[in-house]
Amino acid sequence: SSRWWFAYGLDISPLAPNRIAVATGDNMVRIWEPYQNKVIQVWQSVRTKVMVVTWHPYKEGVVSFGTEEGRIGIYDVNSANMNTSSTYHEKAVYSMSWGYAPTKFPDDPLKTGLYSCGGEGTIFCHKPKELGKPAANVNSYLAAENKYKHQPPARTAVDWEFTAKLLAVGSSNGVIEIFKAPNLQLLTVFQYHTRIINKLRWGKNEGDRVMFKKSALKRVLTVLTFHRISHNFSSGPVVTII
Description:
Layout: E1 7-12, E2 20-24, E3 29-33, E4 38-42, E5 50-55, E6 62-67, E7 72-76, E8 81-84, E9 93-100, E10 112-118, E11 123-126, E12 136-137, H1 138-145, E13 155-161, E14 166-171, E15 175-180, E16 185-191, E17 199-202, E18 209-216, E19 220-227
Antiparallel strand pairs: 1-2, 2-3, 3-4, 5-6, 6-7, 7-8, 9-10, 10-11, 11-12, 13-14, 14-15, 15-16, 17-18, 18-19
């Protein structure tokens, strides 16, 4: 049947480009290997539509997914091991990204966590080895760490640039914030328009250039390019409004 090709999202493995994870509307994650003409169907603990999938940046075969019900899961293709987070979003999960967690994990010197953003406007950071424990509320952490004096808008999208250790966060009012690991220090704020940010994606580094794409309603796609954004921010938050 071709019904499963009603796809909500896909992600190509950075370590095995022949593996493509597909988020589908029939309550499954598909791991598609086109050169081998092979499809692995992942349905355990999924239960509902899968809205987004993303591969781990350095652990081969590990893929995460977010569902219409707000649940988060991590699946290991090599071991067929499935784990789901005990922390739920109130609404569907539309954005996820692996990145640096604000607290150190004893089992992972790179401090890698899974960031998820739900339709209710909250970002969580899940510890892969401790999915049974409550996930960290990243919204609260960002507000405390950067001493916000205002009520931030609902967050709608997240994406990490893993090498540069930069986190991009999109919001319901068109604001894009850039944070720097390890403490998620606010570096820059952009507001290109006033519509919701539906998707964020960093491009590849090109020397000193880092860029990402953002899309909003009416299918608008914008590419912003930064120069040396990750340097010379040791003296506190530097905020730029465009």
